[in-house]
Amino acid sequence: MALFGRRNEQYFTAMSVLEDFLARWLKAELIDEGTAERLRQFESSGPLAAQSTADRPGALEALLYLGLVVLGVGVFSLMGLQWDEFSPAGRVAAIATPTALLLLMGWVLRRSTDPEFRRGSQAAWLVAVAFFAGTIAVVLSEYTEAGDNDSGLLIVSGGALALSFALWLFNRSPAQVLAIAATSFFFGQATGTLPDEWSQEVAGSTVLCAGLAGVVLAEMGLFRPASTARGLFALLVLAGPYEAGVGNGPLVFELLAGLAAVAVIGLGVRRGDFPLLLIGVAGAFVVLVTFIFEHFSDQLGAPLALVLCGAILVGGVLLLGALRRSSGVFRRA
Fold it and tell me: Which phi-psi region, left, alpha or beta, contains residue 249 (left: φ > 0; alpha: ψ -120 to 50)?
């Protein structure tokens, strides 16, 4: 799920393997400490090290992100202070203009060979998706009646989801996958407005379906980066049934959330993906704690329920450690 590519991971993995070999050679007295240190220095300045350094964020990238933050703050400040003084066309232009600039900025930066600028293009397009949703909302509010009813939320979320997917087709990066996951969750909440009263079951079921679709497509190799897509959409797989079942929702969704957590853990083990394991274990903990407090706190009492939840947490940590060792995801640094 790293945002900066696989070259960093390759470099640190190679150096970890080198340290393993050096330790064996030193123990066998095949080399001395001076030779080992020269080997470390030689390999640390090799091609992988140069690529890893290029992948690291620098001052230009930080300034670019700061510029995006300042742009966002400026737009929201303008909307808050001068919004009532604008005409309908002026209100649309106030948010549509920075949206277009962000899309253009992302397109220009994407064509750069500099890794910092290419990552900046991802961030620009990520922010553009949020601004695009705002643009649709303003247009609906100023020129249609949809802005005053639930269908407007569906249009806004659907438009943002469509744009995030279109941008992913041009730039299949972690930031664009994040945009698709976020807008999918937003669209799921919007579908909850379809019944006469907002329905957490409908919203949660939609989020679950979106999560399952994302994970399946990632497993098929159609949704990349696959590790990022698996992790983010696994969160939706957990969040969907949890939302549908928490509080006054049907018990079946709470049980489904538990099964989803087990499935995510199993996928993490199968893929050797430690972040995915962490997501699954954390999801299982949240589901179990919620289940205990909702259904057994009256019988057990709050203190005993807390003790049980603490035991579950400790057990989850121990399980996570065991799975981490067995999956062999992270080598010794």
Answer: beta
